[in-house]
Each structure stands twice: as C-alpha cells, then as structure tokens.
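chain below, 492 aa
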Amino acid sequence: MDYLKATPQGVFAGDKKIILRGMGLGNWLLPEGYMWKFYTKCDRPRRIEALIETLCGQEYALNFWDEFYSKYITKDDITWIRKQGLNSVRLPLNARHLFYLDTDLHLHFNEKTLNYIDQCLLWCKENEIYLILDMHAAPGGQTGTNIDDSQHDMPELFANPIYQDILEEAWCLLAQRYASEPTIGGYDLINEPLPNTQKQYNAQVAPLYHRLINAIRKIDSNHMIILEGVHWASDFSIFEEFTKEELKDNVLLQFHKYWNNPDEESLVVFLESASRLEVPLWMGEGGENNLYWYTTAFPMYERAGIGWCFWSYKKMDTKNSPVNVDIPKNWDKLLSYLEGNALLTKEEARAIFDDYLDKISHATYQESVINALLRKAPVSIPAFAFDKEQIVSRRNNSVSFRTTQKAPLLFADGHSGEPNWKRYGGEDQPESEHLIISMQQGDMLGYHVTNFDSITPIYKGDGEILVTQDSDSFIWIQCTKGTVQLQGINIE
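prediction:
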C-alpha cells in the first residue's frame, strides 16, 4: 500500500486520487453509554467500567473487558467492511487506556491496548484498507463531555497545560511506532475539541495543533495529519489564523455532520476554508440518522470530492448502523437499576453481561445501511437526493433546503420552512417532513447509483415519466408530459 497524501487536488494513494470511504469503529476501545442504551446515567468508559465492577466484582470485570475487546471488533468485521467496497476505518483511541505515566512522569504504551491496535492494523493490511488513528479521548479530555471519558466534566486538556505536554508525548510515541507503516492512513490529532459551552478555550486549539504538527514532523514525515474544527468539528473559525504555507505539509481538514440539512449549502463554510488553505476535506464522522438522510448526504460528499467515514459501525438494538447487537436478556433490569428503581444480585448482573458478550459474538449485518450509503440495490432514493438537474420549471422557494438548486422542492402537505432531519434512532421521516419535487414537462433529474437491475419511479399526477440511462451508474428521470409530483425512486 502507498502512504496517503493530502494535496490541494485531493487525497492520493501514490499517484492515484482516491475518495476515502470508511467506518468509524466506535464503542470498541472507547465504549460510549448511548451505544449500551445507558445514555446519561452511565455515559462514558470510566463510568461503565465502575458499573460492571460494582455489580460483578473486580475479577469478573477484568475478564469481561478482555472478552469485550477481543469480540467487539474482529478480523471478520474488517473483512466485511472491505467487501462492501470501503477503503478505510477510523479507530477511536482512549488515552487513559493506551498510555500510562511511570513514577518519573514518562509516558509509555499500555501493551494490552496497543496489541488491539496492532491487531486491527494487521487486519487492515491484509484487507488493503487504511487505518486512521483518532485521538477520541485525549489526556484530560478535550470536550468535558462523555465522548472524551473526562473525569470532571471539564476539558482539562485546555484547562491544565500538563495534559498538552502528555498529548504531545503521546503522539510522538505513536509517530515513532508507525512512521514506516503505510497502512496507517493518518493521525487525527484531537476529536471534536471544545463544544461551544467551553469556547473560552478556543484560542488554545490552533497553537496546540501547531505544536503537535511540529513534534510529529520531527519523527514522521510520511503520514497525513488531520485537524478538526471546534464545536463537534463543525466550526472552522479556528482555521482563520492558519496560512496555506503552515498546512502545506500533508494536512487534511475534517468536519463532522449530524442531524442537519444534507445539502451543498451546508458545506460551503468547509469548502471555503479548504480552498483558501489549499487542503482537501474529509467528513470524518456522521450518521445516527435514517436511510433517506444517508442516501442523500453521503453521495453529496462525493459530488464535492470529499471523503467520508460513517459513525458508527456497530451498536446495540439499532437499525441505522451496519451491524446490530441484539439487546441482552434482562437488560431492562440493568437499565432500571441505573434509574434507581431496581436491585441486582451479583449473579443476575453477571448473567446479563455474559449474555451481552454472547450477543456481540452473534451480531447481525444490516446491508440496508450500506446500500443507502453507497446507493447499492436494493435501495430507495428520495426525489430530493438528485445529483444532477436539468430544470425548465420555476422554483417557489417554500422549502429551505438545496436553495441554490432549481428543482421545485415542496413539502407534501404544503407547509413552508426548513426540514427537520433529527432522526437519532433511524426513524422514518414523519409525513409532515415528506418532500416531493413538482416536475413539469421537460424537467429532468439525474441520480448516481452503484448497481441496479430495475428502476421504479414513485410519483403522483397526470403526467408521464421517462427513465433513461446514460452510463452504467447514472439514471435520469424525465417528465415528458403534464405535471408529476416525484416522491422517489426504488432501485432493485
């Protein structure tokens, strides 16, 4: 494999330009409470660890985590990801588990955690896909929320300078270990630093990025360095003080996207920053929505030349991630315990967690999610998810979505405004959020699809529709007579 290289023209593997398509391996080396249905009651690794130890005992807890880490992601997972046509995975790291300080305050790897990373690296190498290292929980915590495993609900990475020293040393250790490994796609320096509730620390982010880049480059000149915006990687204002000269050495900018308009207009601020700094973009984390959002958003990134990484690959009791882990037996009793409404004996608790480990080993793949991301048959594509348009009719601008496009978008029930895309559990769009396109004679909409045998437009009205194909992967829907209200197309 060739090292990945970030250039003004995009990301390259050797002399071949590629679009990164990947999966985020959330909840493996950094468990998150919402993926266990724990939510705020037990929301981060240290609290989940304390729960299991309290209920089941220290010895059981140690054995549980050994089994959990060994089973949650395996070679079969990486092989399946590759077979879907994806080329990368993003691995969240928890600094608390990956490193430790000795009595002289020197940082070292925790060999047990390091072995899991190296094992994943081997699986990726065998499958010829890239592994991106993501500092998801930095020393001290970079957000002060559950996602960084922070101890005191404070972003101590920025509140206490000692943690920035530790983070620099941590990245130096990683760079020393992996400098000559091309299967490592890049170093994602800090995941989602500083939500707006902690924006008083924003001025520290750019100097810390400079410091980390300089430290890594003294050791490793091979790998992409990936920088995220603040406020859940959605605010690129911190990059205003960077120059293109400072980022010319193999740097990629990363944004995250959740629960908002999957349209080109929402990308403008990121594209403008990337253009000014002459660096490529990566949508490094996004998902947790429904299939209509997926089959609209992810092809949109590719139209803009932006790679992507879906979050998250595997969860419990899910229909909007590629892999589902069934709810363990009596899990409701565990949730009731967390609410303070039930007691559990040690034997009951152990049985519940034993069943969770068994359920992990028998997780099921949900190809409908992959099909939506890649537009692989069978898949349903909403009308508004078009990739090209040739429109002769006029738009009335009653819908605040894809506003620079000409296609006449309407809410099916006739109301006006901005669509609501907040479908955290993958729920279908409610009827009040259904969008249609009113097509008149001569209007044409184009959709890129990966594969298909048959295409069925779903529409109402007294007009007529013609379906044509101008390549193996592009289809056109044309209104040839009268008026139709196009709802979507089914691909088989």
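The first strand starts at residue 4 and ends at 7. The first helix runs from residue 45 to 56.
thats it, cya
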